[in-house]
Specification:
This protein has helices at residues 19-30, 54-59, 68-80, 166-175, 189-207, 256-265, 268-271; strands at 7-12, 39-42, 83-92, 99-106, 112-117, 123-125, 132-134, 147-150, 153-157, 180-185, 210-215, 217-219, 225-227, 230-233, 239-243, 248-253. The protein starts with 6 loop residues before the first strand and ends in an 8-residue tail after the last helix. It has 7 helices and 16 strands. The mean pLDDT is 94. The radius of gyration is 17 Å and the shape is globular. It has a single domain (7-271), classed as 4-Layer Sandwich (Nitrilase/N-carbamoyl-D-aminoacid amidohydrolase). It is an alpha/beta fold. The protein is 27% helix and 29% strand.
Length: 279
């Protein structure tokens, strides 16, 4: 059963290519967590290694359930008694020279209970310092949606570019109606300035769920610029808390009565004429 006083937390980072430095920053933030449990903590996309190029990320890739990064994350979850959405990590896969951008859900006992592999890969042109993004060069796309029951309600996992595809979240609701969507991200400065807030609010309103998103922020080693503005949005589309540019932590509490009231007063899930009845 979902806990009525559950905390949801996002940690905003300016990750570097140095894994040890990034993990140290995460631990420093975890020491500042609110005391209320249960607590869900979301880390950004590529939180452990970023700003050195995709080849460097490939060099840090680990087998699922093995490796020093995952070991440290499991320690954190158990030590601080938290559920941890481990942003995205490079996990080795069957395709030679590629990894999956995997978002791991680790419970408060330090066990990995879910793996979501990023489905939509960022192969685009952006008018910024990078110009061309070709995520598929080193990343193998996933094909499985994840919605799982947790102390926070039905928790969905998505990563960054996924937020642009509304039909993905409609499909997730066929598994179980979303209560909370966790979205690790590394949204670029240019695309974030244009679309970050409208996309997040639209997905929250359409799906009548909380969204907690942890983004990268600032200038990185390879001159890539990310947008920041990590935030927690209510199922009515209100921004409950936001961190514009600085690194650090934000948090809010889930109000399950608000969720129930919104869905009762405006039952759009039942009214949707295009909703499939097949899971």
């Amino acid at each position: 059963m979902a806990n009525a006083r559950a905390n949801i937390v996002a940690i905003q980072m300016t990750s570097s290519p140095l894994v040890e430095d990034n993990l140290l920053f995460v631990e420093q933030q975890l020491k500042l967590l609110p005391t209320q449990r249960p607590c869900l903590v979301v880390l950004p996309e590529c939180f452990a290694c970023f700003g050195g190029g995709d080849k460097l990320i490939l060099d840090t890739a680990e087998d699922l359930h093995l490796g020093p990064i995952q070991h440290k994350l499991k320690q954190f979850a158990k030590q601080y008694g938290i559920w941890l959405v481990a942003g995205s990590l490079p996990i080795l896969c069957s395709s030679v020279g590629k990894f999956t951008a995997s978002c791991l859900l680790i419970n408060d006992h330090g066990k990995t209970v879910e793996e979501y592999q990023k489905i939509h890969l960022f192969d685009v042109q952006v008018a910024d310092n990078t110009g061309t993004y070709l995520e598929s060069r080193f990343t193998q796309a996933g094909n499985t949606l994840i919605v799982t029951h947790t102390p926070f309600g039905n928790l969905g996992l998505a990563v960054c570019y996924d937020i642009r595809f509304a039909s993905m979240f409609t499909a997730m609701n066929q598994i179980a109606q979303l209560d909370v969507l966790a979205l690790p991200a590394a949204f670029t400065q240019q695309t974030g300035k244009a679309h970050w807030h409208p996309l997040l609010k639209a997905r929250a309103i359409e799906n009548q769920c909380y969204i907690v998103t942890a983004n990268q922020t600032g200038k990185h080693r390879n001159k890539r610029q990310t947008y920041g503005h990590s935030c927690i949005i209510s199922p009515w589309g209100d921004t409950l808390v936001e961190l514009p540019h600085d690194t650090g932590m934000i948090h809010a509490q889930i109000d399950h009565q608000l969720l129930a009231d919104i869905r009762t007063q405006m039952p759009i899930y039942q009214h949707n004429k295009f909703r499939s009845h097949l899971v």
